[in-house]
Amino acid sequence: MPEQPEATWFRDTFDRVRTEVQKVIVGQHDIVESVLVGMAANGHILLEGMPGLGKTLLVRSLAKSLSLDFSRIQFTPDMMPADVTGTNVLGEGRMFEFRKGPVFANIVLADEINRATPKTQSAMLEAMQERSVTVGGKRHDLHEPFLVMATQNPVEQEGTYPLPEAQLDRFFFKLLVPYPTKDELREVVLRTTGSAEQEPRPVASREDVLQMRAIVREVPIAEAVLEYGLSMIVATHPDGSGASPAATRYCRFGSSPRGAQSLVTAGKVHALLAGRFNVSKDDLRKVLKPVLRHRILLNFEAEADGMTPDKVLDQVISFVDERDRDPIKI
């Protein structure tokens, strides 16, 4: 079956942007690809990793390669919602006028979002969900494409305000940024201590991003593949009839419907990257962990047994795959 022209254009555009970002980012191939998948799927991303792993550089490079406006918000405990959204100020004509905050950009880096108070976090998350902010009773729409990349530090939890589960659910992916290998670290040191600096070039535009998102929504998914994806979502619900043994033992709460929506959408992006205009079960397996690792809540027994969300999801995949091969067990 010949490849669809839309899929070819999508993959070519995606590869151009990825290549440009990788000129600046050493290694981290899976993280770069996942960030671009989130961008194409119109989903916000939570990046978790130690300081100095290139999270800020990655987001800034993405904005440059897409010719999009970029802003960075460094969250601190004393920040107010107006520091994010903007506020009304008294102008020269003694009339109040709205002065936009840093959230009015195409790509917003919310650095260490867990250091802001819940009141400030909620203002940021309202913008993520509604694609608008309300100041002084007046609604102000954000310009599309609008993408939030939030970071949080997995250590140094003193003085932080962890995001509640309901707010974590608004992130499309949660990505765990690993340490670089020794060879990658050598390349980072050589690049950053020498005279030559790499700068990404604009290789796509705002219109390209919107077109990519439109193409993703057109990708069909077969009923059998959708059933497989929904089975993995249901398998995370500890009290449900389709619960996996791992979820029953280790989960307090399973994935929300947003998890199913994100799983299917991310699967569509991977199908396009593979040159297909249909979603496969393997596409869904590839994205299950980044989609669900922040959407399942583990209990004390999981902590005592050293279980992580990723380990639970590995068992969920095995459970659903076994039932998929043997329908009599369903």
Structural topology:
Elements: H1 5-22, H2 29-40, E1 45-48, H3 55-65, E2 70-74, H4 82-85, E3 86-90, E4 96-100, E5 107-111, H5 118-130, E6 132-135, E7 138-141, E8 147-152, H6 165-168, E9 173-176, H7 182-193, H8 206-218, H9 223-234, H10 245-250, E10 251-253, H11 257-273, H12 281-292, E11 297-298, H13 300-304, H14 309-325
Report on the architecture of this protein:
This protein has helices at 5-22, 29-40, 55-65, 82-85, 118-130, 165-168, 182-193, 206-218, 223-234, 245-250, 257-273, 281-292, 300-304, 309-325; strands at residues 45-48, 70-74, 86-90, 96-100, 107-111, 132-135, 138-141, 147-152, 173-176, 251-253, 297-298. It has 330 residues and is an alpha/beta fold. It has a five-stranded parallel β-sheet. Strands 3-4 form a two-stranded antiparallel ribbon. Strand 3 (86-90) and strand 4 (96-100) form a beta hairpin. The longest helix is centred in the N-terminal third of the chain and has 18 residues, at 5-22. The two termini are 33 Å apart. The relative contact order is 0.14. The model has no long low-confidence stretch (mean pLDDT 84).
